[in-house]
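Weekly sync notes, structure subgroup
Attendees: PM, AL, DS (notes)

Item 1: joint prediction request from the bench team. They want all two components modeled as one assembly rather than separately. Inputs as received:
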Amino acid sequence: MQRSPRDTKVSLAVDLGGLAMRNPVTTASGTFGAGREYHDFVDVAALGAVTTKGVSLHGWEGNASPRIAEVPSGMLNSIGLQNPGVAHLKEHELPWLAEVGATAIVNVSGHSFDEYVAVIEALEEAPVAAYEVNISCPNVDAGGMTMGCHVPSVEKVVGLCRAATKRPLIVKLTPNVTDIAEIARAAEAAGADAVSLINTLLGMAVDARRRRPQLARVVGGFSGPAVKPVALRMVWQVAQAVEVPVLGMGGITSGTDAVEFLLAGATAVAVGTANFANPCATVDVIDGIIDYCEEQGVSDVNELIGALEC
Amino acid sequence: MTTLCNEKAPILVNEEIGCNIWLMTVEAPAIAGGARPGQFVHVRVPGMDDHILRRPLGIYAADAEAGTVDMMYQVLGFGTERMTALPLGGSVELIGPIGRGWQPPAGCSRALLVAGGVGSAPLHPLACELAAAGVEVTAVLGAGTADALVARERFCAALDCEPACSTDDGTYGRAGFCTPLVEEALAAAAAEGRPFDYVACCGPEPLMRLVAAMAAEAGVFCEVSLERRMACGVGACLSCVVDTVDGKRRACVDGPVFPATEVVW
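Output from the run, pasted for the record:
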């Protein structure tokens, strides 16, 4: 049975750097396909937005298996941005999202500066509400996190993407840096309308008995409830360092988790790994935010953003 | 494609049926009503919140009338260990029915089903369906030891004859692996002038690779059911990909059953 968020008098709409969201909940790229995979469980049009799986210009095959490992309160993945290329997204997935009335954020990936720009250019006529520039994937050898760790490359890729589109531009940051506030400021200075964080933490799991890594690529991205304290801390730091809004994510499984991110300074949140255990996690999180607001006498969810008292 | 459900399923049966192999029967009418042979369910085991992923289990039986689903599981790790402790009256949460099931060729008249260990589970509904359709079915079941041949009686009942069995330790049927039985069955059918037109295999990957090679040698269409570490179970996360001649494909929704010739072993 397909679920939608429950009715409420609480005003849930937020503005994420020019992207109008009907509520502050989207999906974390790579955990939700292009939305269609979860439409039997939740009405994807009722979400604040659907953020699609990272897309490159031509298809990428991704990494060898095993690609995931379960670890306490979380998981590791090394998918490696497998995707069929931007033409497939444009021809098959985005029209479907538009038809059901969903708001689409496209996560843009590339192996080179030029590839990011080419992906955006390929999508400028397509029904896309915003782009999320992925300079934070830890599972590829070129592009991804390699571009998101140094101020000059962040400035360059964000500047090039900025010049390629007038649509809202979100830049997704990696937590695998010494000072994430510095990277966020660089993205803002180069024209980002919003920043999203955190991508996964670089991690590793070992099978002691076999003396082998659990992932074929040895290392992978760590996500799930275990990373939430790190994500909250970084969202709080970044929200204080930049003027642009923050899309917060990392271990969110409930409405309370989401409210914690809003209080720490996020304007909106994304649900990722939680979708795997609970295919209705996105709607449960929205309902949980509504519950909180009603209980606390909050009439507009915007009142919560950055309202942490400390 | 059938609609996927996420059903809270009360546990009706949860008992050890062989060495370290358990049967769980749950009430899940929507999944039971829609399931096709070879599909699976993705199980959320309660009471293990620090283990965040579901466990994929093949559907051993789906009774649309009774609204029940049977799952066979081997205790291999934390999740399956935890499942053994779940009481009757409790419940699990199932996503299902998932995936591309067995697709015997149209007009199939004689089929060979080969199961290794708990690979017998997803083959059992196929045996029932083929037998009901009047297909002549031969079953080969292999296991480590007699106590692990847990599906033998159900295959007997479905096919109205004893399946050919082997055990690694020789405690039941032929001693050793089941591959000689497969070879003999293929040869006997060919010698009769009525060769098999379908082979379906589920079990350890080395077994499936060998059986696929034997079927190819005999010129018989063969399908195998593959297993991978899986996160979402609905085709979104790309964790469970299988190397195929068409590139990396998802075991969950493009499989779990693949034509053997499409698999890059």
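Discussion: The two ends of chain B are 28 Å apart (CA to CA).
Action: AL to compare against the crosslinking data before next sync.
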